[in-house]
UniProtKB/TrEMBL annotation:
BTB domain segment(s): 19-68
InterPro entries: BTB/POZ_dom (IPR000210), BTB_POZ_domain_cont_9 (IPR052407)
Organism from which the protein derives: Rhizophagus irregularis
Organism superkingdom: Eukaryota
Protein name: BTB domain-containing protein
Any single Gene Ontology cellular-component annotation: cytoplasm
């Protein structure tokens, strides 16, 4: 299936979300870009689609829109950070993320979407920033991350974990253990950590 628009041929763009496609069609025909009613994930998908479709005039406008919405940037920081790591051409967002992480690395941990961070990015983040983070905060976030990644194997209440749950948790966080300075965490958590390993 091909969709022909003025000066544009789209062949099998199944990666483009329907809502993003509708926004692009509206822009192509009306010259207006409506972003106010879209969530950040849709806007990021729109940014990627505009880049893939060589609608180069849209990318700086979309980046500027995102950069002006500080609340959404903070709550979706992980999604935005992972996007700019994959798509380096989004220079304004990339610069914002780099400067924000240098100024306050714990932004990543405090992001509403922290549990969506991919393991490789989390490892890279901890490798670069661990000395600047509160270890108890890292530990708490690793627990939340492991619960989210466990496919409902781990109850959200750690006091209800079984031995099997503790084993699952240990497997999930094993790559991160060397990045946690347990000497900076209370004795109770240190004992719990030793039991897990």
């Amino acid at each position: 299936m091909s969709i022909v628009l003025p000066n544009l041929l789209l062949e099998e763009y199944t990666k483009i979300l329907k809502t993003v496609f509708e926004i692009l069609i509206n822009y192509i025909y009306s010259g207006k870009l409506e972003l106010a009613n879209s969530d950040v994930k849709t806007i990021i998908a729109l940014l990627i689609a505009a880049d893939e479709l060589c609608l180069n005039e849209l990318c700086p406008h979309i980046e500027k829109y995102l950069l002006n919405d500080k609340e959404s940037l903070k709550s979706n920081f992980v999604h935005i950070l992972q996007t700019v790591n994959k798509f380096e051409q989004f220079k304004n967002l990339s610069l914002f993320c780099r400067e924000a992480c240098q100024k306050d690395p714990s932004l990543v941990l405090r992001a509403d979407d922290f549990v969506t961070i991919e393991q490789e990015y989390l490892l890279e983040f901890l490798t670069k920033n661990n000395d600047f983070l509160r270890q108890i905060e890292v530990w708490d976030k690793l627990i939340q991350w492991a619960i989210a990644k466990s496919n409902n194997e781990l109850p959200s209440d750690v006091t209800k974990w079984t031995n099997n749950n503790v084993t699952t948790f240990g497997i999930l966080i094993q790559p991160f253990i060397s990045h946690i300075n347990f000497q900076k965490i209370s004795l109770f958590l240190q004992v719990w950590q030793v039991q897990i390993i």
